[in-house]
Amino acid sequence: MDKHPKYYPIMADVTDATCVVVGGGPIGWRKIAGLLDCGARVVVVSPDGVPALEAAERDGKLVWHRRRFRPGDLAGAALAFAATNDEGANAAVREEARREGVLLNAAYGADQGDFLVPSVVRRGRLVLAVATGGASPKLARRIAREWERTYGPEYEAYTEMLDRLRSRALSSEADAERKLLALGELLETDALERLRAGASPAEVEADCMKLLQSKLQNT
Hints:
alpha/beta
């Protein structure tokens, strides 16, 4: 039997969710920055922190308790992150997380936590994530960098366009099978290549909308 856990990949909405990060160093800040970007309510517990953390507190983006972790710090948390270089502090966070039923990410040992934070490439609503189960975070970051070159900024406009076209298709009176076929055919057009070449997103979308409408019409 494989001794390593088989992680279940999931995209979680943490908007307004309280997330506690214990540790204010470079690794802790990466967790904090990612959570803030996703709209989480971030609480940091750490006696000190990197300059970016100082700036985020000044701007009112998070709550920072400038001290060591204490029992009760995870009260009300949806997620917890142990990101200190103090084994004792990380162990205390882990014990409370398990006692309180709070899912934990352990930055200094994947096997000490409940979930991993993958390397991520974002292109608007398109999110590409990769992880190695803790075997090699550097490999995950390398793959993410390769994806950044493959999936350029045109994917942001492309994804938003597809969302609007999908909404139009779903609101039509065509039957379900016709809708699925029409949406599938949109992916076979040259829309993405045109966006990559610098074409106007509005023009590309207008052409795709005409195609969609023709496919949705009963024949």
